[in-house]
Design brief:
Elements: E1 2-5, E2 12-15, E3 18-21, E4 24-27, H1 32-39, E5 47-54, E6 58-64, E7 71-77, E8 79-86, E9 97-103, E10 109-112, E11 116-122, E12 126-133, E13 142-144, H2 167-170
Antiparallel strand pairs: 1-2, 2-10, 3-4, 5-12, 6-11, 6-13, 7-10, 7-12, 8-9, 8-11
Length: 187
């Protein structure tokens, strides 16, 4: 496995080792000891999620406050533009974001530490997105920032198309409108 850092400390891009032959391929997608050591994380992954989305769907930017989740994300079908935004109010990289294209062909994984907002946009006809989380999802602890917040200015690859959004995601607030008590801090 090859680990790449990003311009925001803590975010990692992982390229798992691919074993390929005439039958197909094999990838070890997670091994607790190896990943904890390679990513330098202390949290354990406790929940796995899978999301199926159609082309043009945008999910995010979501986060949990009281039970923040680190995430290890990847795509097993299709192609997505994945984004992590640093919303930790006392962070030197506050409001900065990192993006990556994840596909079932490049097999990359994206590690997003707790305290970041996360979202993705589906580029292919359909996508199956999987992610491991370091804490359990709690509906009452679910927060979000509107996807097109001008103070964050994520460069979504929309090509002047309007994304498909859930009702909840359409009504999220901008970062400026979120109370500081509703934003994570660096511990």
């Amino acid at each position: 496995m090859i680990i790449h850092g990003a311009q925001i400390p803590g975010i990692k891009i992982i390229e798992p080792k691919l074993f390929k032959d005439k039958r197909g391929y094999f990838i070890e997608t997670y091994s607790e000891n190896r990943y904890q050591e390679a990513l330098n994380i202390q949290e354990r992954f406790v929940q796995d999620n899978l999301s199926y989305s159609k082309q043009g769907t945008l999910r995010g930017l979501h986060y949990q406050l009281k039970r923040p989740q680190g995430k290890l994300v990847s795509v097993i079908l299709g192609e997505v533009f994945d984004v992590a935004v640093d919303i930790r109010q006392n962070s030197p990289t506050f409001r900065q974001w990192v993006s990556i294209i994840l596909t079932n062909r490049n097999h990359r994984q994206f590690y997003i530490p707790p305290g970041f907002a996360h979202g993705f946009y589906v580029l292919s006809r359909e996508a199956i997105f999987v992610y491991k989380c370091t804490d359990y999802y709690v509906a009452e602890d679910n927060y979000g920032i509107i996807w097109n917040d001008a103070t964050i200015n994520v460069k979504w690859p929309l090509n002047k198309k309007k994304p498909i959004l859930s009702d909840k995601d359409q009504n999220l607030r901008t970062l400026v409108d979120v109370s500081l008590t509703d934003l994570p801090t660096i511990l």
